Amino acid sequence: xxxxxxxxxxxxxxxxxxxxxxxxxxxxxxxxxxxxxxxxxxxxxxxxxxxxxxxxxxxxxxxxxxxxxxxxxxxxxxxxxxxxxxxxxxxxxxxxxxxxxxxxxxxxxxxxxxxxxxxxxxxxxxxxxxxxxxxxxxxxxxxxxxxxxxxxxxxxxxxxxxxxxxxxxxxxxxxxxxxxxxxxxxxxxxxxxxxxxxxxxxxxxxxxxxxxxxxxxxxxxxxxxxxxxxxxxxxxxxxxxxxxxxxxxxxxxxxxxxxxxxxxxxxxxxxxxxxxxxxxxxxxxxxxxxxxxxxxxxxxxxxxxxxxxxxxxxxxxxxxxxxxxxxxxxxxxx
Length: 334
Ligand code: ASP
What we know:
This protein has helices at residues 2-20, 39-61, 66-78, 123-133, 141-150, 164-183, 185-190, 254-259, 262-273, 277-292, and strands at 24-32, 99-105, 110-117, 138-140, 202-207, 213-219, 240-242, 246-252, 296-302, 307-308, 315-322, 327-332. By secondary structure, the chain is α+β, with helices and mostly antiparallel strands. It has a single domain, classed as Glutamine Phosphoribosylpyrophosphate, subunit 1, domain 1, CATH 3.60.20.30. The strands form two sheets. Strands 4-3-2-6-5-1-11-12 form an eight-stranded mixed sheet. It has a four-stranded antiparallel sheet with strand order 7-8-9-10. Helix 2 packs antiparallel against helix 3 (66-78), helix 4 packs across helix 5 and helix 9 (262-273) crosses helix 10. The structure holds aspartic acid. Aspartic acid (ASP) binds at residues 30, 84, 199-201, 219, 221-222, 231-233, 239, 251-252, 254.
């Protein structure tokens, strides 16, 4: 009798603990310069963001892992041609689409990444396969594609990724580059050609009911990038990072995020300086990043479910949903 009573108490204790464990998902659809768009266009982006948030939240609310949640959310945006990841990815200088993605499970510090893939429909699933099914962390190009195919990732023809919007953006960038070359050769080499456009990378971070954190990022990179260029998104510690302190996914001018080891630097500030996630992220995005001349933003979540979404560009598609019903989707500063 006493034993049954104790068992019941234990079950009740576990149920209450689980019910109180915060969980949440945060998603971004890229930082950049979205300009003043018509309401209908804004609404389309917001609806897409909400679909991704809901997909990730659904996994978490059913007790699924943060890793599954961020993968789900990112896949939704990869499949949506509005964003620069999967379908809709930007074009390289050579007129091809080369996709990068990474995922990290903060509970065990396992990570997987792919770079420069051209035929994987959802690069985040290839990154997940590298994490779960190989002894490696990062695979590139043809080898990554073969591995992804062998491990059941959906393969498409490179033409699948084409959108008129991204193609036109490349043509614009090429024209601009030509003009810049004629006036100032050195500057033309240094300026990214979509500097005044949105970047559009996608990413997600989550905290699950077991208290585990995860991060995922997927991108086509930057318009007019050179063949073979790899950005920050698939580099663990730069564009994507998760441990048992926080989970971070970045977007912006990748070269600066790599130099600043952006995502890990946020975690380090929390661990070594005792900063809150918001203070750590703001220091990196609003002070360190512009001091080098870079721009962009990030999303982050900590163990307690505190979130941060700073950016120093004109806009960043971003949103979240928390265990207590709190949630929002935004594009501009306010
Ligand atoms: N960070 C990405 C890159 O440099 C671009 C982006 O965030 O849109 O590849």
